[in-house]
Amino acid sequence: MWGRLRRPQQDLPVRDWVSTGRPTQMQGFDQALVWVGLALLALGLVMVYSASIALPDNPRFARYASSHFLTRHVVSIALAFVAALIVVQVQMQTWEKYAPWMFLAALVLLMLVLVPGIGKGVNGARRWIPLGLLNFQPSELAKLAVALYAADYMVRKMDVKEKFFQAVWPMALAVGLVGVLLLAEPDMGAFMVIAAIAMGILFLGGVNGRMFFLITAVLVAAFVMMITFSEWRRERIFAYLDPWNEKYTLGKAYQLSHSLIAFGRGELFGQGLGSSVEKLHYLPEAHTDFLLAVIGEELGFAGVAVVIFAFFWLTRRIFHIGRQAVALDRVFSGLVAQGIGIWMGGQAFINMGVNLGVLPTKGLTLPLMSYGGSAILLNCVALAIVLRVDIENRQLMRGGRA
Predict the structure, then answer these.
(1) Where in 290-400 does DSSP place strands (E)?
(2) How many independent structural domains does the chain possess?
(3) N or C: which end of the chain has fewer CB within 10 A?
(4) In Å, what is the CA distance from 157 to each residue of 196, 205, 324?
(5) Where is the chain membrane-spanning (predicted)?
């Protein structure tokens, strides 16, 4: 009886802070999305520790403790949690207002990272800006900035989306500028993800199909030319096509060949947590780009299948939230969520493809799992924005205001 009397009170419309003068009350959010994200972070933390625990045996990391990377990864996750808790409080209309400025800030940081004395070079690439607790990677911010800017751009250009020069060409120039800066680092993997985010949002925003395929063809041609006229990129493709060739096994295909060996050793249920042999200085970057190979060796096909399914579910759920926002006439929020879905799903697909030998080697981490402070930070911020979109969707469906 009391339950029947109380239930109507729980279904009352939720008013927002604009109309009441009080902060928005988060009456509901997608708990499954949060739990899957937390599960990936937790598994990533365990596997980063497992993959990095033997690194101090390498003279290059001799001054580090065995828990060095674990400690830094914990700090990164803690910072990411704090940032996510702040970001989830920010209304989507605020992100829409400042989207162009975020894109401009990302461009400035992409320029600064190329300046000697500011940007930090590692293994021949200059992609990081040292900030004490973490080395910030501007390309990670650029992924979020492009998702926000492209969504805002499509909302502003909705009336002329059928006209190429008025709708597509300016966005193409913006992405092209980001691409030039990323290729100067060099970071072709990040450029591929950013191009996919921008193209996906243009397509979902309703750009004419013929124009979309024309732009896709231009991008594919650009990537082919970059590979054709770059000897080291061309060698990577040849190594990917024939990783067991003696010419490549100890060179360009070294990581790929040892990644495949790790998966082969893992078989169905793996060698057991902590029992990887390939992480013992055979597989470079085991705690970053090739974390999935360590998962495959220690947890086997079963562990890899769980990770793949988790990312599939996460991406699908993010897209569902985005479509729901568009259905509620919140186009900017919907496009941002779907752009983040393309980012998470696309980058996870590329990383998994590289680890499994399906795609050529690229320097992309596994979202939410691989070691990397700025990547973890921006991944959690992006998921917090998706959660905010979901919260505002639920408020509207209850009869309140977003």
Answers:
(1) none
(2) 1
(3) N
(4) 19, 10, 21
(5) 32-53, 74-92, 98-118, 164-184, 190-207, 212-230, 290-315, 327-350, 370-391
